Structure formats: structure tokens, C-alpha cells
Amino acid sequence: MYYNSILETIGNTPLIKLNNLADDLQGTVLVKVEYFNPGHSVKDRIGLKMIEDAEKEGLIEPGGTIIEGTSGNTGMGLALAAVIKGYDCIFTTTDKQSKAKLDMLRALGAEVKVCPTDVEPDDPRSYYSVAKRLSEEIPNSYYPNQYDNPSNTQAHYETTGPEIWEQTEGNVTHYVAGMGTGGTISGTSKYLKEQNEDIQTIGVDSKGSVYKKYFETGEFDKDEIHPYLTEGIGEDIIPENMDFDLIDAVMQVNDENAFITTRKLAQEEGLFVGGSCGAAVYGALEYARSGDFGEDDLMVIILPDSGTRYVSKIFNDKWMQEKGFLD
Ligand code: PMP
User: Fold this and answer.
1) Is the CB of 180 under 6 A from ligand 1?
2) Distance from C-alpha of 188 to C-alpha of 84, rounded to nearest angstrom
């Protein structure tokens, strides 16, 4: 038995029970470990889907260039698909991203442009603006725009949602995911709620992001925005892929709780995962402990990526001490 290319190994990631971190809870807590994807993150699912859909719609022709603003994981998913399908890639990213992430993109032949973090999204120097400008300048280029591209949500509607439903034999009661572009939470939640409308979807946001307040009040409050270190979740914009109607509660988690939980996942569960995974688990357990999670309940938490991308940060004691997260 063999696969015709690496792209066929995307998806069908395992569900694994949390044994130690959730041992005070009566219900069952499972994590879906997305680092089992070939590019080591959940974003392989959307990288492939966005390119396939663009090909079908004639938005990209053979030999073309894919240009995207990405924190690394989406870039990896796009780069994998591009290698197999014969496209070039240019990625714009921010200066807060791990060097390891950018080196991995370059290893797959992509060009990476680093842009400043602390500028407004519509500033011409922002990584959104630079990606957009390059896509206008470079002929036969395609700008997938994971924030507003419906193929992002659709990838999760077609793969992540059905996998969770089948793997839990329809017994899932709570679904938890971090909120970045919104693709993971919206697509998966849509599928799961179509199977059983009682399933509760809990979004996890980062302190310093606009989502929680927007979800609770409908107000886009710029005062909520401040820099934070957790990569991949929280935003200073409301992307089209974020469908708040499919979300029942939002938990906001700070960097310290996210990173301490990330280290516990490695040391107490053998799950060597990234910082947004620690945030998702911390937010999920806080939600479960607040009451709405009983003996017969079954929670599934998405763990988007791998710890390998954060060895010089979250898993480095000196860095954690410098940031004030460890004594
Ligand atoms: N965690 C990490 C590490 C990510 O890269 C992303 C993608 N931005 C997310 C969580 C959030 O996923 P989504 O964009 O589908 O909301």
C-alpha cells in the first residue's frame, strides 16, 4: 500500500485522551493532534483545498506564483501543495514569528518576506498589505487570502468535522478550537451542528485580540488590541471566515497560561505541541470546570501544530524567564 504523493497523507489525524490534565473532570476530554499532518499542522488541510479550488476556478495556471500572508503554518500547507503541483510561493509574515517556522518554509523552496508586527493592518508595510500588493504586481499569481477565502472554512467542513463525528461515533458534545482566521472553528462547527444541533462550540481567543469582546457585545473595540506572544490565534480584524453564529462561548487566554499549559501537555501527556494548543486546552478546561460539562459529556479540542516550531521560545527556560512566565 502506498500514497501517490505526500498530499494524500493530509488529514485523518488521531484523537487522543487527556489523562492527567483533565483528571479532575468527570466527562471525557480528547484532543485532535494536527501535527500528524505532513506539514505538521492543521493548515495542510486548507493549503491543499485553497489551491485545488483556485485551479478549478481558473484562478491560477501552471507555473504560477502563490502569494500569502501567513504565520508559517498556512505557508507550509501551501508550500507542500505547491511543490507537488509545480507552483512558486512567496509568503509575507511578521517579525514575531519563530525563525524555525520561516526556515521550514524556505526549506520547501518558498521565498519569505518579514514585515513589522506593530503597524495597522491597512498600513502599506503590514504583512496583509505587502501580500496584496505583490499579488497585484506579479503576473499569473494567486493570493489565496485565508482570512476571507471560503475554501478555508470548507476544508474543515469537508474533513475535520466529519473526522470528529466518525471518530467519536457521534458522541461528541463539546467542540473547542482556537480562533485565528476562523476557518477551523466555523467549518468544523457547521458540520457538527448539522449532525447534532446540541453540540456546544467553544472558541479560544488570546488576550490582546478583539474577538471575545466582539462576540459578547458586537462592538469592535480597538482598545482591546495589544501585542501578545501566542502565535496563530486572536486577531485585530474580523475575517469573513469567522462565523460567530456557530460559536456558543469564547474563552480568552493570556500568554502565560497558554505557555505553561503547553509545557504541561509535553511533560504530563507526551504531547509536544505549540502555544495555541496550550491556549486551547487551558480555555477548554476552564470552560469545563465552570459547570457545563458532566459525566456523559465528550469534549474534542483541536491542537493545531507541533512544539518543534517553539523550541527556542516556549520550551526554552531562559526565554520563559525573560518574559516573566517562569521563576
Ligand atoms: N493555531 C495555530 C498555530 C495557527 O497557525 C492557526 C492559524 N492561524 C490557528 C491556531 C487558528 O486556526 P484558524 O486560522 O483556522 O482559525
Assistant:
1) yes
2) 27
